[in-house]
Write a sequence for this structure.
């Protein structure tokens, strides 16, 4: 859904959508499961910077909720992740803040972004919001055993024979330490 400044100038636009998977490109970082629900309102806010210097900002307020699958940071298995959040964002025309004296309004409750070519794409905003909300590290379970660094076996489902660790330097160091503690 595209919000055109010229249309928003006439009146704010309310939206309430169910976006099927594929509407927003999340890349490899997250896979959308089922519809992504989003609703809210877009409007133009005129920023009066001077008598003849008026900037048309787009304010986008709303929320989204959806289910996603992201790879576990240790074993790469898909993890179900429900994500949802409210947003309140301001978009300025790109280039509006260019120049030596960068002026900016202070809007503590909002974040500033930029729009190009007189319009803003809701899908691009949602993409950024969802990706920003992803945890830094997702684990399928807190004690995920991960993949064996040697044979690649997922150690949650099956132990592999490498686990004896006879040749693993980390195990040898540990065995040496144990020996010293005992003596
Ligand atoms: Zn895992
Ligand atoms: Zn192994």
């Amino acid at each position: 859904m595209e919000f055109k400044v010229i249309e928003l100038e006439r009146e704010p636009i309310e939206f309430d959508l169910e976006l099927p998977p594929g509407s927003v490109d999340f890349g490899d970082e997250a896979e959308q499961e089922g519809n992504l629900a989003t609703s809210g309102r877009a409007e133009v806010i005129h920023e009066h910077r001077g008598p003849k210097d008026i900037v048309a900002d787009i304010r986008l307020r709303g929320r989204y909720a959806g289910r996603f699958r992201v790879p576990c940071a240790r074993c790469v298995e898909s993890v179900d992740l429900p994500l949802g959040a409210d947003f309140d964002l301001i978009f300025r025309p790109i280039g509006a803040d260019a120049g030596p004296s960068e002026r900016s309004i202070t809007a503590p409750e909002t974040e500033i972004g930029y729009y190009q070519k007189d319009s803003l794409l809701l899908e691009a905003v949602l993409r950024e919001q969802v990706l920003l909300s992803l945890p830094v590290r997702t684990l399928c379970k807190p004690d995920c055993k991960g993949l064996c660094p040697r044979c690649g076996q997922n150690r949650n489902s099956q132990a592999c024979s490498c686990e004896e660790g006879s040749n693993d330097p980390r195990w040898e160091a540990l065995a040496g330490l144990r020996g010293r503690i005992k003596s």
Notes: The first helix runs from residue 5 to 10. The chain has a mean pLDDT of 86. The chain has three helices and seven strands. The first strand starts at residue 2 and ends at 4.
